[in-house]
Design goal:
disordered N terminus; 6 helices; mainly alpha; about 160 residues; Ferritin
């Protein structure tokens, strides 16, 4: 099992039901790498301060989660590609957003955050039921509230006037 296609041509989410610990760790790492890159892009290109702050939060939270994931993987003998699958793809998930500016960028970014985080939360809940690796299961429980927070912020920003 490997990463599912990128949804909305920008965000990766693994279909991981009954996946091995290595597959789950690899997919989570790939998701973190993409979220870090997209967060950095939003922090630089967002036209509204709130969008830039959300980008900074995404990058920081996913960087922290990925560092913890890499420690768990090392202890479990799982090798993770430092660049992640996302960086090795010709279209690495940021291409669509890189072509946008201003309010159009903000709206597309926020819509992608909402879609990605809804799917990630649902997938984490499914994966946790079948995951034998307790360290990864604990990490997924720890990360889920952060994903829910990111989702809530993005939904709130989309509802505001001037969202794009």
């Amino acid at each position: 099992m490997r990463l599912a296609m990128l949804f909305s041509a920008a965000w990766a989410l693994p279909a991981l039901a009954q996946a091995s610990a290595a597959e789950v760790a690899s997919a989570l790492h790939d998701m973190n790498v993409l979220e870090i890159r997209l967060g950095q892009l939003a922090s630089e290109r967002g036209s509204r301060p709130e969008v830039r702050r959300l980008g900074e939060l995404l990058a920081a939270d996913h960087r922290k989660a990925d560092l913890e994931l890499m420690k768990i993987a090392r202890r479990g003998g799982i090798a993770l590609d430092p660049l992640g699958y996302v960086e090795r793809r010709p279209m690495n998930g940021t291409d669509r957003l890189e072509g946008l500016e201003g309010a159009a960028f903000d709206r597309a970014f926020l819509e992608d955050v909402v879609r990605a985080h809804r799917e990630a939360i649902a997938e984490l809940e499914r994966v946790r039921r079948d995951l034998d690796d307790q360290a990864l299961a604990r990490l997924s429980r720890k990360v889920q509230p952060l994903l829910e927070q990111h989702l809530e912020i993005a939904e709130s920003l989309l509802r505001r006037p001037g969202a794009g």
